[in-house]
Amino acid sequence: MIQGIGASAGVAIGKAFVLPNWEWDLPEQKIDVGDLAREFDRLYEGIRTSKVEIRQMKDELREVVGTDESYIFDAHLAILDDPVFMNEIQGIIQRQYKAAEVAVKEAIDHFVTMFDLLDDEYMKERALDIKDVGNRLLKHLLGAPEITLPIDTQPFILVAKELSPSQLAHLNPNHVLGIATLAGSTTSHSAIMARALGIPLVVGLESKLEEPIATGDFMIIDGETGIVHLDPPGEIVASYTELQRRQQEERQRLKTIVEVQSVTLDGKEMELAANISSMKELDVALQSGTHGVGLFRTEFLYMDRSRLPQEEEQFDVYKSVAEKLDGRPLIIRTLDIGGDKQLDYFELPEEENPFLGYRAIRICLDKTDLFKTQLRAILRASHYGTVKIMYPLISSVEEVRAANKLLAEAKAELQAEGKPFKSDIEVGIMIELPAAVVIADMLAAEVDFFSIGTNDLVQFTLAVDRMNDQISHLYEPYHPAVIRMLKLTVDAAKRRGIHVGVCGELAGDVRALPIWLALDVDELSMSANAILQVKERLLRLQRRDSLALFDNILECPTSGQIHAMLAGFQPGNAVSGD
Ligand code: PEP
Ligand code: MG
C-alpha cells in the first residue's frame, strides 16, 4: 500500500498507463528561402513514415480486438491525406519560413483549438485524433521516441509525473478511470478540474514509490484517502470493488434531488452554482441542476495553443455557454493567467515569485489590447444570456476603475459598430487578496457583486504557496484568520447590499456549509461534481443553528478547534464538539 494525497474522490481499479512527457524541442530560428524544398521533403518523408507506422498498428490492433476498433486508424490516415490540414502546414512553411516541425505543431494547435471550441462531441474526438496524428508526425520529424496514449478500448488509470490543466482538458473521461501523479497538490488547477469531471485523482506519489509504476501494472487508487495499491491481492480488490459499488449507488441516490430547490429547513435560499473551465464541465453542471455558472475560468481558452484567441473565437465560446445556460447566470472571469497557469506563446518574464508577480488583472491592465479583445467578446455574448463580468486578483479601487474604464471603451466601440450587448452588464470582483478584504467596504461601492476566491485568499493570508506539497499541511482554510477575513468581506457586501458568493474550493466543502449559512452568503459556486452533495446537506440544515455555531467558531483561537466544532455540529444541536 502506498499513501499518496487524495485530490479527487472516487475509486479506480484497472491497469496503469504511464504517460511519458510530451515535450517538443522546436527550432526557434526561421529557415532560408533556399531551404524550403528541403523542409517540404522532410515533411513528406515524415508523413510517409507515419502512414507506414499507423497501418502497422492498425493490423496489430485488428488481431487483438477485431475490426471495429481498428477503424480509429483509418481516421488517422485520412488526416494525413486531408488537404485542409496539409495546406495549413505547407502554408506556414512557405509563407512564414518556419521549419516543418514548427509548422506541424502550429497547424495541430490551430485545428485542435478550433474543434475543441465547437460544442460537438464528434468534433472534439477529431481534435484528439489530429493531436495524436500530429504528435506522431512530430515524433518522426524530430527523431523522438514513441509516446502515445493507449488506443485500445480498455479504460486505464493514467499515471504521470504531473498533469497540466490543458492535458487534463483534452483527456476523454470515458477512457480514464482515474489518475495518479507523482507531483501535484490538491488545490492545483488540474486537481480542481479532475474533481469537476468526477475523475478519481491521487497526487504526491513521488517520494512514496519504491519502484516506478509501469504501463500495464494492475492498480487501485482511492482519491478520497490517497491510498494506492499496486498489484493487490484478491481480497483487497474485492473490498474496493464493493466500495466502488456503494459510491455509484450514492451518486444515483443524489440524482433524485437534482430538481429540488436549494433551501434550508428554515427557508434560507442558497444559489448553488458551478465553476467551469470547459464545455465538458458545463455538461456535468447542468446534469446536477446548477443555478448557473459562478466562475468561468477563461484562461483555459488561452492555453495549449500557439497564439492568443481572437475576439470571434472567444465570442463563440462565451455565447454557446450562455445559450446552454438558457437564462441562468454566467459569471465570466477575465483572464487570470500567471502563477501555475502559463501560456507557451506569451513570454512572461522569469520571476522570483510568480504568484506575487505579473499576472491576472495586472497583465490585463498592462496589455490593454488583449484585455479589450476579451471584454468585447464577453460583452457581445451578454446579448445571449445573463452574462456578468468578474475581475480576478483585485487589490485596489484604482484597479477596478482602470478595468471599468477599458470596459466603457469596449462598450463605446461596440455601440459605434452597431453590435448588440447588454449595456448595464453586472461587474464584480474576486475577493482573494487580504488587501481586498481590508478595503471590502470601499470596493463594494464600486461593483455589483463579490465572489470570494478562498483558494488564493488562504494562500495569501497564510503566506502558503497553494502548489507546494511540502507545506500543504499549513494550507488551512479553517484558520481563524481566514474565518475573520470571510466575515469582514461578507459583512461589507451586506452593508452595501451587493450580491456575495464564494467560488474557491471551500464553497464545495460540505463541512463549511454552516459558516456560509451563518454569514448569509447568496451563492456558493463549486466543482460541478460537488453540487448535489452540498445541496443534500443544505436541505437538512437550519440557518438558526448555524448562527449559534458560528458565534462559537469566531471565538476559537485554533483551526483544530474550528474543525472539531464543525465535525461535532448536529442540526438542531448547534453548540457541540468543543
Ligand atoms: C480562488 O482563488 O479561490 C479561485 C476561485 O480562483 P483560482 O482557483 O482560479 O485561482
Ligand atoms: Mg484565484
Describe the structure in your own words.
The protein is of the alpha/beta class. The chain has 3 domains: 23-142, PtsI, HPr-binding domain (Enzyme I, Chain A, domain 2, Orthogonal Bundle), CATH 1.10.274; 156-252, Glucose Oxidase, domain 1, CATH 3.50.30; 260-567, Phosphoenolpyruvate-binding domains (TIM Barrel, Alpha-Beta Barrel). It has helices spanning 36-65, 67-80, 83-96, 100-117, 121-142, 165-169, 189-197, 234-254, 279-287, 299-302, 311-325, 360-366, 368-381, 397-417, 434-438, 440-444, 454-462, 480-496, 513-519, 531-538, 543-554, 559-567, and strands at 2-3, 5-8, 11-19, 156-160, 176-181, 201-203, 218-222, 227-230, 271-276, 293-297, 329-333, 386-391, 426-431, 449-452, 499-502, 523-527. The strands form 2 sheets. It has an 8-stranded mixed beta sheet. The protein has an 8-stranded parallel barrel with strand order 9-10-11-12-13-14-15-16, surrounded by 7 helices. A hairpin with a 4-residue loop joins β7 and β8. α1 runs antiparallel to α2 (67-80), α3 crosses α4 and α13 crosses α14. The relative contact order is 0.09. Phosphoenolpyruvate binds at residues 295, 297, 336, 432, 453-456, 503-504.
